[in-house]
Structure formats: structure tokens, C-alpha cells
Amino acid sequence: MEGKGLHILLSSLSLVALLAIQSTDASVPAIYVFGDSTADVGNNNYLPMNAAKANFPFNGIDFPRGTPTGRFSNGYIGVDYMAKMYGFKRSPPPFLSLTAETIKGKIFSGVNFASGGSGILDTTGNEIPMTLQVQFFSTVVSNMTSHIGPASAHRLLSESLFLISIGANDLFADFAQFGPQNDTHKDEYVAILTSKYEDHLKKLYNLGARKIGIFGMGLLGCCPALRTKTPSGDCIEDLNLYARKFNRATKSMLHSLSSSLEGMKYTFGNSVKLWSNIFQHPSSYGLKELKSACCGGGRFNGETPCMPNATYCPNRQQYLFWDMFHPSQAAYKLTARAFYDVGSLRFVSPITFKQLAA
């Protein structure tokens, strides 16, 4: 996408059109999404062939019209359901899909910058790391400001939501390189991650972000791909410990950051705590299969990816995992519900995602 063409198009939009865009039933004017494959709605479709992709069957089998959109899921993902709860149809469109011919004001109601395979660190993955996602957002802010002026842009962004789901690939990468490590190694690496994460959040704040919703790590060691690496098929607790350390450090960082940045509000969804509850009481969440992926191959369907020649389960609503690494649509839906409303306070802090929009 050519920045010059985007600038020309945005300059042609009128302030009246912008106000019309904001006059919806949504509780916030816009949603901006950052993260990895748990939040990607199709950005990776526009990357070279070696990038992580999900724009083929059987991904999207439960999406409207059975469309494989690039979501790493059988249907919707967590940011889709969260957007629905705020009054939108689904997640905003992927940034890389926007062109001078199609953007038509969508920039003012939200953009999704997430990229499957990306991480907090620039060295994690070969897709669109968080650093570049923030740069893309900076381009959006520049164009927005040039059209409606800095005051109006600041007001719109300060009332908008910023949803972030990232960090898993950084932890997977360290585990893949070094294997199980002692607490000192984990603590040092988590400190590096949260420091870089803090830098990203500060840049977003300086660009106008004020309401930030963070999806924390889940039980990474319980993914089907990881279960295949243990003779018993149990979770790899070393990775789960990593996830817990990362969540604690992130919560502490967010608390400190919000104390120093005027006007910043945040909520942190503790996926480890939620998933632990799911494993203890699966029937309460309508789930039956917690170990095997619905789509894939090999042991637990976790040894090969979900491809057009893979097998997939008919009872997808009962599966926690869609493929070897990613949750099912059902799991994403219950996660969004658990984080959104007042009853979710045992899984989020210091406020709910619903309260974040207030």
C-alpha cells in the first residue's frame, strides 16, 4: 500500500463523513488491534509465502460462508468476539488489506495490525513484529491527523480501545532454543520481554492510546503440539511456569506504567487463570476435548498443521483447540465473555473489558 495514495484518499474524506462513521451503536468510536496469530485476521495473507498463513481450508470452516480469512481458527477469534461485545460486527480489517480504493473511512473505526508468528521482540518470527505494527499505526495516526486535525484525532484515539495479544511466540522461541531452564533464566528473559513490551505501550500512548486491553498468556505447555513431546501426553509445565511468570511481570509493568502515564486505563485478562479453571471444570464451559486439536494429524492432532488434507472433528464446539497451537472458535468466544463483563473480575484486573470502554 502506498502511503501517498492513502494520504490523498484520507484528505478527500469530509469531517461530516467522519462524524457519521462515529454515529453507531458501538460503545467506543474505534478499536485498534495488535498482536500475533491469536489476533491476526488476515494481515499475513499479504506477506511472502514463507510467512505463517491460515488462508486455506479447513481454517474458517465455521466462519460465515465457510471462508478461510487468514484467522488461525475454525471461525471467529477472541478480538472478533470482543469487538462484537463493544457493538461492532467483528474485528476491524487487517491493515495490509487497506488500499486507496477500499479504505473509505475504515481507518476511523479501527484497524487490525496483528500478524501470526510475530512477537514482542524484533527477533521473534519473520512476520510483522510489534515494533513494525506500532510503526504502521503511526502512519495511520499521521494520516488521521492531517485530515481532521490533531485535537480531533487525539479525542477519537483517547476514546478508542487498543486490544493486544502477544508474547506467546517469544516464549515458544526461547523454549525451542534452550529447552527447560531454571528460574533465573526465565526471570531474566521475562524481564527483557516486559521491558520491550513497556516500550511498545509507551509509544502507543504517545501516539494517542489511552484505553488498553491486554490478553495475557494461556497455558502454553498444554497446546497439542507441546503435549506430543511428553510420553504421558501431559502438559509441559516448564512452559506453563513461563506463562505465569510473564503474566505476573506484565501485570506489574501495567500497574507501574498507568501510574506514570496520565489518563492511561488498562485491563489485563489472565488467560492462565481462566484456562486452569476450564481444565478443572470443562463441562461448565461446554467443552469435552481438552487435549487433542480438532484439525491436524498425528498424536493429539498436534504433530502436523491443519491443512486441506488434514482430518477435522465434526463436534468443534466441544474442543478447546482448533489446531496444534490455536484455540477453537468456542474457546475464543468463552474467553471474550469471561473477560468482558462484571462477573469476570476473577479473571481480569483491575477492571473488566466492559468497564475499560466507559
TrEMBL record:
Signal peptide (residue range): 1-26
SUPFAM superfamilies: SGNH hydrolase
Protein keywords: Hydrolase, Lipid degradation, Lipid metabolism, Signal
GO BP: lipid catabolic process
GO molecular function: hydrolase activity, acting on ester bonds
Keyword set includes NADP: no
A Pfam family recorded for this sequence: Lipase_GDSL
Gene3D superfamilies in alphabetical order: SGNH hydrolase
Family, as annotated: Belongs to the 'GDSL' lipolytic enzyme family.
PANTHER family to which the protein is assigned, alphabetical: (WILD MALAYSIAN BANANA) HYPOTHETICAL PROTEIN (PTHR45648:SF172), GDSL LIPASE/ACYLHYDROLASE FAMILY PROTEIN (AFU_ORTHOLOGUE AFUA_4G14700) (PTHR45648)
Official protein name in the record: GDSL esterase/lipase
Organism field: Acorus calamus
Lineage: Eukaryota, Viridiplantae, Streptophyta, Embryophyta, Tracheophyta
